[in-house]
Amino acid sequence: MQGKKEFLDKEVTRFRLSERVPPHNLYRRLAELVDWTFLYDETQALYSHTGQSSLNPVVFFKLVLVGRLENLVSDRRLVEHCALRLDILYFLGYEVDEELPWHSTIGRTRQLLPAAVFEHLFDHVFAQCVARGLVAGDTQAVDSAPVKANAALEAVREKQAAEAPGPHVAGREAPPAAPAASLLSATSHQLRNLATSQARRQGAQIDALGARHEQARLLSNKTHYSLTDPDARISVKPGKARTLNYLCSLAVDTAKGVISHVQADFADTRDSLHLPRLLTGLQRRLRANELPLRELLADAGYANGPNYALLEAQQITAWIPVFGQYKPEIDGFAYDRATDAFTCPEGQARPFQKYDTNQDGSWHKIYWAPCRTCQQCPRKPLCAPRAKRKQINRTIYDAAYRRAWQRHQSRRGQRKRRVRQGTVEPVFGNLIHHYGLRRLNVRGHAGAHKTMLLAAIAFNLKKLLEHRLNRQVSLAVALPQPLLAANRRAGRQSRRIEATTRALAKPLMRK
């Protein structure tokens, strides 16, 4: 007989939420894994002793972490999703008939809580990873990736030149000061170079059919800013379109892939400029857990002289390849470290003369010989065809560059490059595609930093839960082994007794 199920929608009088959530559920194990009560002490000074009760800070952090774990960016969708999940309600400490906080309350609480509270939660989870043996600490892989800001590129405004303050008229209010992001801050030579490059790329173009058309407008952070999110920066990734982004910088431990540091940076600067701040935060966290840092892995975007010198001063081996334009040797010119001079193919010395800086403020050393030496040289048309003499410019960090280049060319350097690619790049892929970092739902540099911290905390919590589950499975497999060994010994003894009985019974059978 065909069965039919009827739904009566009756009221259940006896229902316990803890009985409906199985012990192996992710959120049930997560509630038992972390002691969340320390958040009350961290946020106690931020609340007044009078007034209405606010949103429970533990509930707030659990809610936003659920958003990262479920890959939900919108707070409105997060609340709707949590109301339909019994395991999440149990994790939050809410009953089935209890109303969850409004999505606007979550957004206001995220803005009011300082970033230091989020960092303390990250340190708390990271310390548990260290206690479980998931972090070695001696080798860290560093990388960065752009994250889309919560602003549109079509709404950018052009920056204005800063005007000198005029005389204040008595009885009138002074005009409000313009925000710093709306004022031109680039130097004159940078603006000239930008105008030259845009004039070369823009303008009328003639295609194969002879039609004339205008190219798209090229926007730059030197001349434009976002009115919606002034901290967002225009950046472009190879193969992608220009967008307003933030830069997410990560440090990942190479032992088990645990995130050891995360920070939000501006996307219009080079990766190498963010390494000193990243290194400071990373070493502070590792020292708090008594872990020494010995090796740092990064790509060529972090290569510059100050970074090499900083890491060598702290006795940290930098496995950072030098950028492609660097040449450890100059063709035909031999360098003598003792005399700090170059020798040309004709045997003429080019000694060190002075230090100088370029337009960006980088220091370099200049080597040259007297003009008469080059004027009488037969190789001058090939060596210095237009200049009066041959001049050699080398960075003041040339020795550190040379050591880094030699490390990268070795077999160990190639192996370290593969280790970095297999460690930090998969972490970025998981954060972007599975932990809600494809696009930010907040604005401002502080909000971006908080969001990236939450994504890293959720990632490390998943690592903790996987380690705990693997440990339980290994223990479950290991427990029956003594019983199996005892059964094997008993079986061998019984087989020996049977063989002895048969051997004794054979003579009697013959008789």
Automatic annotation (TrEMBL):
InterPro entries: IS1182_transpos, Tnp_DDE_dom, Transposase_InsH_N
Region Disordered, annotated ranges: 160-181
Pfam families linked: DDE_Tnp_1_6 (PF13751), DUF772 (PF05598)
Residues in Transposase InsH N-terminal domain copies: 16-111
Source domain of life: Bacteria
Domain Transposase DDE: 343-465
Protein name, as recorded: IS1182 family transposase
